[in-house]
Amino acid sequence: MPILTSIIHRLDKPDAETPATLTCAERALASTPELEALLAGVNDSFHAKPKAWGHFGDTGSSAFAAGLSEYLAETADFVTWSTRMAERIRDLVDAHLSVGGHLLFVHYQHGERQYVSVALLHHRQGFAIDGALEVVETPQLNLGQLMLAARIDLAQWQGGTSRQYVSLIKDRGGKKFAEGLRELLGVEEGVDASGETRALLKAFSDYVEHEDLPDDASREKTDAVIDYASTQAKRGEPVTLDELSELVDEQQPKAFYDYIRQQDYGLSEEIPPDKRTLNQFRRFTGRASGVSISFDSHLLGNSIEFDAERDRLIIKQVPGSLKEQLKQRRE
């Protein structure tokens, strides 16, 4: 994960009543193994948080986007742009948070893509062993406490077709704080990650039912889909319908993709996966005494109920093909 350029400024805010003060660095940092390890830790924490996805507004009013464009066009330097943004972030922190921290601005490459990330790193008191082998208190970065962080996929932004190249932490410091961060960046939400993930999983469930797959095959494909989407979420990368379709059916790699388009689920070519939604989607399966049952876990409590006291499942929406068989049996 090569770091192309980075800088760290400091925001001091002792308590909620005291105004925040900003101390800006005068030069960019040299890339070191320690800095790269810090970036990896920040990214891991960032990808684990609930996020909003969007794009810069079309009005050209985003000072963040304008300054970033100047830096990428080499008409302004990274230090100047980050300093201007740090001043705006100071005002946001002053209005909504009771603690400060260190502001990390970093331009880096991951694989074939380049990103720019901004994160406010908070501290906590920890312990260390000094040279005299004594225990001493020492401040440590608390990467798990990210409340302000955003990442811009430069390739998607400059490509001009995506509406989800900006990702930012959502609702960590309260709704007003999240809204303030979105306005500071000049970002308009372009996609609902949770809703898109639910729609994708609904499409997959419908496809499994449409193809009338055996239980073992259904369970295997479900696990493969969830594992792939969860891995993409951990990496901070989108799920692509082409890759997912190939994963669902290697023999007919376009079958699931064509099914989605024919049924018009309204899904984008790339979908930012939502980890919470994925974690709710697993299949329950069971077979005994000539009865085989398999259903997606998110249906439990909705169209399927489990009565533990009476040891029974209640199915509220019987599949069409099964309903017809039952009707014919009664006749």
UniProtKB/TrEMBL annotation:
One of its GO terms (cellular component) is bacterial nucleoid. GO terms for molecular function: double-stranded DNA binding; single-stranded RNA binding. Pfam families: NA37. The lineage of its organism: Bacteria, Pseudomonadati, Pseudomonadota, Gammaproteobacteria, Oceanospirillales. It is found in: Cytoplasm, Nucleoid. Belongs to the YejK family. This is 37kDa nucleoid-associated protein. Keywords: Cytoplasm. PANTHER family: NUCLEOID-ASSOCIATED PROTEIN YEJK (PTHR38772:SF1), PTHR38772. Transmembrane segments: none annotated.
